[in-house]
Design a protein that fits this description.
The chain is of the alpha+beta class. Among the domains are: 42-175, no CATH class; 176-226, Laminin, CATH 2.10.25. The chain has helices at residues 2-20, 256-268, 274-285; strands spanning 60-65, 76-79, 85-87, 96-98, 115-121, 132-135, 139-142, 161-163, 172-174, 187-195, 199-206, 211-212, 217-218. It is elongated.
Length: 286
């Protein structure tokens, strides 16, 4: 019977030793990475870096120059030559930055991958308003509502462009002159480039003798084109002079009959008035 006691003792020791061992913690499954929040409708992608006077010094010159997106304004940056600089569109128009070979707008412009300027181009909902965005060849001008239009405010202000594929971001129309008829009266809508396999991008180009961005053109004297259908006020200055019948070689001659009529009119002046003239006329007719 002693061997039974030995077995029981061994079992007790085994149980006690297992109980004394530190329990291994089950490996934690770890927290799942938080999902990136879906893009808020209307949120701007401003790109980077944030433009400052320091990091644009290489491209921005002193003084103020006409704005490419609105040639009636002269409060935009002047760009240095020889450094492949481009004048930024609104609201970054106080800076010049390195020219982007992909055709993007400057950092700081909403959705600068597709937007060149947030002002200056006619709105597709109202061609008489130029408060909407200039799009590059990939951009589609967003709907003019309070979220993506000129009146948008807050952290994502103003009009902007998006891509055709992202109609969930905004309802949009291709931002070229084939889809937003907007050229200056002295400009033509011409094909600029192909987009993808089947698409095309058309751009307003000022006619010969005119310069500008195609939406606005001016002549050699700096005069802007007249707006089509605009009312025009005309002032005429009338002058009078005495007629003299001095013959000039090649000049039109009135002829003897006209000269005789003029003489009769001169002699008749003040000869009669009222009923007296009427009676004289009837007597003459008789």
């Amino acid at each position: 019977m002693r061997w039974h006691l030995v077995v029981v003792a061994l079992l007790l020791l085994l149980v006690l030793s297992e109980a004394a061992r530190p329990k291994k913690k089950k490996p934690s499954k770890g927290k799942k990475p938080a999902k990136k929040p879906a893009a808020v409708k209307g949120t701007c992608d401003f790109g980077g870096p944030k433009l400052t006077a320091a990091n644009t010094k290489k491209y921005t010159d002193k003084g103020k120059c006409p704005c490419w997106w609105d040639i009636t304004r002269n409060d935009c940056a002047c760009c240095k030559k020889g450094v492949k600089a481009t004048q930024c569109g609104y609201p970054m128009h106080k800076f010049c930055y390195k020219k982007d070979e992909a055709g993007k707008g400057c950092p700081g412009v909403c959705n600068n991958k597709y937007t060149l300027s947030q002002k200056g181009f006619p709105c597709y909902s109202d061609h008489s308003s130029t408060d909407c965005a200039w799009c590059n060849k990939l951009g589609w001008q967003c709907e003019q509502n309070k979220v993506t239009g000129p009146l948008a405010t807050g952290k994502n202000p103003g009009s902007r462009c998006s891509t055709q594929k992202n109609q969930k971001y905004c309802t949009s129309v291709q931002g070229d002159c084939r889809h937003i008829a907007s050229c200056d009266p002295n400009a033509e809508c011409k094909k600029d480039s192909n987009v993808g396999k089947f698409g095309q991008f058309w751009k307003c180009v000022c006619k010969k003798g005119w310069t500008g961005n195609g939406i606005q053109c001016k002549d050699e004297d700096g005069n802007l084109s007249g707006t089509a259908g605009a009312s025009v006020e005309v002032t005429l200055t009338m002058t009078a002079g005495e007629y003299t019948d001095t013959y000039v070689d090649g000049e039109f001659s009135h002829g003897s009959n006209l000269e005789s009529l003029i003489g009769e009119l001169e002699s008749a002046g003040g000869a009669c008035t009222g009923e007296e003239c009427e009676a004289t006329y009837e007597a003459t007719e008789a």
